[in-house]
Amino acid sequence: MIRAYKFLLRPTVRQEQAFTEMLRDHCSLYNGALQERRDAWRHVSKATVKYGQQSAQLKEIRAFDPERQGRWSFSSQQATLRRLDKAFQAFFRRVKAGDKPGYPRFRGVNWFDTVDFPKDGDGCRWDSTPHHPVTRVRFQGVGHVRVNQHRAVVGHVKTVSVKREGRKWFVVVTAERDRPEPLPATGSVVGIDLGIANFLADSNGDFVPSPRHGRRAAAKLEAAQQALSRFPRRKAKDRTKNHQRAVAKVAQLHGKVRRQRLDHAHKTALGLVRAHDFIAHEDLKIRNMSTAPAPKPDPDRPGAFLPNGAAAKAGLNKSINDAGWGVFLTILHAKAESAGREVIAVDPRNTSRTCPQCGHTAKENRPTQEKFQCVACGHHAHADTVGATNVLRAGLVRRDANPA
Ligand SMILES: [Zn+2]
């Protein structure tokens, strides 16, 4: 199964310049090769030049013009020649069919906007460490270019292309994924509730505790970020030794938190996918919208907000947790898909205050963070177990409403 992904590139000024030159030089290669074919067709009584003959000249062309042609990837130049070949094959097909042929045209440099790299690792390198915050892609003659990778690339990267659209640059990668290997059915369904004290609670009354080391690392990270925030913002080259150390510390702890979180997420997701055919979880996007802390307006300055230390701290904790849950759910969905399991996200509203026994919904059902006690029927349980049970119920309703 092959799938294409398109991401915005964030080239530096110098890289953008190099991309522009890369397009320009591939464009002139394309036009040069087209000229050769035109001349042969017109002057040598409809002789045709083949892709193989043009490709065989590439070595000389590169040696002859090292500044403009020798600089770029051989394979990407072959891809450009192949593109011309395709245009000609289509032309000959039309001639044969007796259609109006439309001879392949020269391209203006502004109309030549794509360079293909037929194989990752040949003239380009897609470098995405899973869940690393910054993905880069390296191109021969350009360097490592930052990628706005908004979604994971699943599988093995096969081809990479650079594309100009208006003033923006994009990378298109295609990746091939193995066919999913379904796990045997277990007949089990489960709902999960993601939390802080416990990483998750499930509808069977089981809990996966938060990783202790993860919490410790998160606390250290928070301290390191506070230490870093005392330095004035400066460009990297203007930072003092202590400032540099503080930056390095934050980066190192970030890496540690990320690795631990990933490891924990993989193990937890694998356990769920092995044990259950169907998994329902809360939709984090909806949950975040409904629990965003309300900012306090400043009465003296209309439109401004009071600084709120507690809210800022809660914000940091929350963002650390959110990132952890987000990574976990991404992994869970990927593992479930390759195992042939079904995962559904449900609207989390009221899942923590509805009684799973009698359906009574009230804030008073939840006297404390951990306790659920229904004021109507007296049913009591751990609040997170109740949440997970309601999530499962909502998930099953959704599944039965839209059977796959
Ligand atoms: Zn009840």
Explain this structure to me?
- This protein has 404 residues and is α+β, with helices and mostly antiparallel strands.
- Helix content is 45%, strand content 19%.
- The strands form three sheets. A seven-stranded antiparallel β-sheet has the order 2-6-7-1-5-4-3.
- The model has no long low-confidence stretch (mean pLDDT 86).
- It binds zinc ion (ZN).
- Zinc ion (ZN) binds next to loops.
Short synopsis of the structure:
This protein is α+β, with helices and mostly antiparallel strands and 404 residues long.
Primary descriptors:
alpha+beta, elongated, 19% strand, 404 residues, binds zinc ion
Low-pLDDT segments: none
Proportion of residues in helical segments: 40-55%
What is the arithmetic mean of pLDDT?
86
The number of helical elements comes to: 8
Distinct compounds present? zinc ion
- State the order of secondary-structure elements, H for helix, E for strand: EHHHEEEEEEEEEHHEHHEEEH
Tell me the overall shape.
elongated
Strand order of the largest sheet: 2-6-7-1-5-4-3
DSSP strand (E) fraction?
Answer: 15-25%
Annotation, overall tally of beta strands: 14
Question: How does the major sheet shape up?
Answer: 7 strands, antiparallel
